[in-house]
Design goal:
It contains eleven helices and 13 strands. By secondary structure, the chain is α/β, with parallel strands linked by helices. The chain is globular. The protein binds uridine-5'-diphosphate (UDP).
Length: 320
């Protein structure tokens, strides 16, 4: 099968591409290298069934050609990272909404099935954990730029499901929950690669707020397994799935685990949210996926526990 991965040089996209190549597929990675990097695909860049196209998903004509040529599209290209989103809200909204619009418009013409990657961020400030796919969503006001990301991903979801409803375009929507693993960069704010880098450098580990906020971290390989299995499951079409690991940890406890596993003497310090992001920044206290639906559909079960994930990220950043 010929597979197009938009954002194929990104953190998740590169792991997905590597897996699809191993499964015998032809893979084209479209990436503008805004947050992705050729280093992510270095180990398989010369594979005869792999091709990188360095351009933007916003290049309408090019994206159209690539979608036409593909049997399946994983649309991962997006503006990601809370730090980037708060700093560049216009870019975030345009990339996420317009990029998806272009991909879906071409897919419907060529009848190419599409995966849309959404985010647990869409659950916003809801406190009804674990989050179910059919739950009500609770977002903050439009003056707080963080929520632009959730809204942009929700428009993507609405648009994909609308194409499914009106034109029977086969779409699958996945909401990824804090995906982590080797190749992820802390440059755009993601907490685990930042904590690991800080611990290894002996620098202070920066816990934002009081550190009681919690997250559920999922290993990137588990996410890739889920995507591949969903792609093979006809009953998944037209549905939205949480892809995550329900194991929850507070950010302060995460900092301690990273420091311990790294054997580091880094102090753990608290940084006020206003200093880390912007005045009035709103964080979500907890974020836990309900994975009943994906379990029932593909038997999904996350395999890699948090300590093992941290060890793998440590090994990656140590260059071993
Ligand atoms: N965070 C932190 N220190 C950092 C980076 C992030 O304490 O250096 C916190 C952040 O405020 C949030 C959690 O870690 O509560 C997860 O942040 P991330 O940006 O990785 O993902 P999010 O869940 O916010 O999308």
């Amino acid at each position: 099968m010929k597979v197009l991965i938009t954002g194929g040089c990104g953190f998740v996209g590169s792991h997905l591409g590597e897996r699809l190549l191993a499964d015998g597929h032809d893979v084209v990675a479209l990436d503008d290298l805004s947050t992705g990097s050729l280093t992510n695909v270095e180990s398989f860049r010369d594979h005869p069934r792999f091709r990188t196209v360095i351009d933007s998903v916003m290049n309408d004509a090019l994206t159209g050609t690539l979608v036409d040529d593909a049997d399946l599209v994983f649309h991962l290209a997006a503006a990601v990272g809370v730090k980037l989103i708060v700093e560049r809200p216009v870019h975030t909204i345009e990339t996420n909404v317009h990029g998806t619009d272009i991909v879906l418009k071409h897919a419907v013409r060529s009848r190419t099935p599409v995966f849309i990657t959404s985010s647990s961020e869409v659950y916003g400030k809801s406190t009804h954990v674990p989050f179910r796919e059919d739950a009500d969503l609770v977002l903050g006001p439009t003056s707080k730029h963080r929520w632009a990301y959730a809204c942009s991903k929700l428009i993507d979801e609405f648009l994909a499901l609308a194409y499914w409803k009106e034109q029977s375009l086969p779409v699958i929507v996945v909401r990824l929950f804090n995906t982590v693993g080797p190749r992820q960069t802390g440059q755009y704010g993601m907490v685990l690669p930042r904590f690991v880098r800080q611990a290894l450098a002996g620098e202070p580990i920066t816990v934002y707020g009081d550190g009681t906020q919690s997250r559920s971290f999922t290993y990137v390989g588990d996410v890739v397994d889920a995507l591949v299995a969903l792609a093979r499951t006809p009953s998944a079409v037209g549905q939205v799935f949480n892809v995550g690991n329900p194991e929850e940890i507070s950010i302060r406890a995460l900092a301690e685990r990273v420091r311990d596993l790294a054997g580091s003497a880094s102090p753990i310090i608290s940084v006020p949210y206003e200093e880390a992001y912007e005045a009035g920044f709103e964080d979500m206290p907890r974020r836990v996926p309900d994975i009943t639906r994906i379990q029932a559909t593909i038997g999904f079960r996350p395999r890699v526990p948090l300590d093992e994930i941290i060890q793998r990220v440590l090994a990656f950043q140590r260059g071993v």
